[in-house]
Every structure is written in C-alpha cells, then in structure tokens.
Design a protein that fits this description.
By secondary structure, the protein is mainly beta. 11% of the residues lie in helices and 47% in strands. The protein is globular and about 50 Å long.
C-alpha cells in the first residue's frame, strides 16, 4: 500500500505540473506533429507515421510512461476508410529526474502506423488528434491535430524504416526460454512476480509490466537479475478499487536494457 501511495503521489505531482499554462512558462510550440507517408505494402495496408518534433531538451512519453509520466491517447474518429490502426512503438528511454522514473523519447519520436483500409479501392485519410504530455523543467499538456490523406504511391520512407528497426525484440529474437507470472492477492489488489529466463539486455535492465486491461494499473516494478533469470515485482490495482481477475495471457512485459529492449506477450502460471 505504501508503494501504491508513493506512486500515486508521483503521478499526481506530474498531473498538477501539467496544469501549468503554456504561456506562463514560455513554452509555446515545443512540439510539432506531421504525418509521414510510407506507401502501400505488399499486403494492401498503408504505412505511415506520426512524427513528433520537440524543442531541444524536451521529451514525451511511451505508451506505459511510468509513475511520473502521462500516457499518450489517440482519437482517429475523424478518419476516412480506416478499418484498423496498428502502432509500432520504438524502444523508449528511461529517464530519472528528481528521484522519479519516466519512460519516453527525447527530441523526436517517429511512431509508425499501419492502416488497413475498409475499402482497398478508396483513399485513406488520417484525421484526428493526439493528446500527450511534454516535459523539460515543467510539464504541459498538448493536443495535436492531424489531417492527411496517405499517398499509396509514396516511396519507402527512411525515417519510418529506422523507427521500425528500433522496435523491441520479440521473445523469440531475444532468446526468452520461459516467462512466468506468480500472482499473490494483496490488501489493495494483486502482486505480480514475473520471472523471465533470458540473456541480459545489457547494463541496468528495467522491466515494465502492463496488465492488458485499461481499467487496471500496475506500479513501477522492482527489477533484479538472478543469473539467467530476470525478476520483476509489481502491484496491480483496479481503478474502481474493487476486485478483479487478471488474465496471464494478456500481461505484457517489456524489458529495457542498454543494448536492446524485449517485448514479451503473456506469461504462464508461476
């Protein structure tokens, strides 16, 4: 419970900082968004990317930003002929400031998106907005609009290719031989002890656990290594404060290391 209260306080601190008016902090225009074209793929999908360009020294957040971060949100509802949107997140960085850990990207983020059209014979228009937090000495909220009709005949885009190459390794690529999750009820929710048998990802390894249910919140894991096994312990609670079930097949574990990151989908009973 103490760890949960500490994490909640950190998140509230970040949120209070986000309420500061941009004009008062003289930080207007710290981030710009544009849509990149990557053409049509062999299987008929469209490849594009949202590119965020930040002023020097500013950062934004990954999908699971840590206790001190703000997760980005996307609204695609203004789009046309969009059946499915698949996002590939490049491996993020771990930041520690004033004793608080956050996970994200500094200076620039190219976020590849693969679009499956509802009607392959019609053009695809991406129109919507992205809500995000950007931080330097202060944190501010941003809502960035985008409206772009994707070019089916565009050439391969080097920036998109580079971002795709920076994705985390799969469990198979990283030679993960086993991943288990031991669940223990707590007074507030559930403790997860994830044990991942894999070679080191390099340097100080940081694990991130995502419960797979947006109504559930996982605390920043304590990450240690025991020989060839990485051990990450986190507490999961429900936003409603009530009881919940945890599906191990939906749990996602990301290991961030100095050499590479690893994306592990699901875990067995521990």
């Amino acid at each position: 419970m103490k760890r949960f209260l500490k994490s909640t306080a950190a998140a509230l601190t970040a949120c209070f900082a986000l309420t500061a008016p941009a004009q008062a902090q003289d930080v207007d225009g710290v981030v710009q968004l544009d849509v990149l074209d990557g053409g049509r793929t062999a299987n008929g999908t469209y490849l594009g990317a949202l590119r965020l360009t930040l002023k020097d020294g500013w950062k934004t957040y990954w999908r699971a930003p840590g206790d001190a971060g703000i997760p980005p949100q996307f609204d695609w509802r203004g789009s046309q002929n969009v059946g499915d949107v698949s996002i590939t997140w490049p491996a993020p960085e771990v930041f520690v400031q004033n004793g608080l850990q956050s996970i994200g990207y500094a200076n620039q983020l190219v976020l590849p998106v693969e679009i499956t059209p509802k009607n392959p014979a019609k053009p695809v228009r991406l129109r919507g907005d992205m809500d995000l937090g950007v931080c330097k000495d202060v944190c501010i909220p941003e809502r960035l609009d985008f409206d772009h009709t994707l070019n089916a005949n565009a050439d391969r885009n080097p920036a998109i290719a580079a971002a795709l190459a920076q994705r985390p390794y799969s469990a198979k690529e990283a030679r993960v031989s086993a991943a288990s999750c031991h669940l223990t009820p707590t007074s507030d929710g559930m403790q997860i002890e994830a044990r991942v048998k894999m070679p080191s990802a390099g340097g100080r390894e940081v694990a991130v656990i995502e419960p797979g249910n947006p109504a559930l919140w996982a605390s920043q894991p304590e990450t240690t290594r025991q020989g060839d096994t990485l051990v990450a312990t986190s507490e999961v609670i429900s936003a409603s404060g009530g009881p919940f079930a945890l599906d191990r097949s939906e749990i996602r574990i990301t290991v961030l290391g100095a050499n590479h990151a690893v994306d592990i989908r699901g875990c067995s009973a521990g």
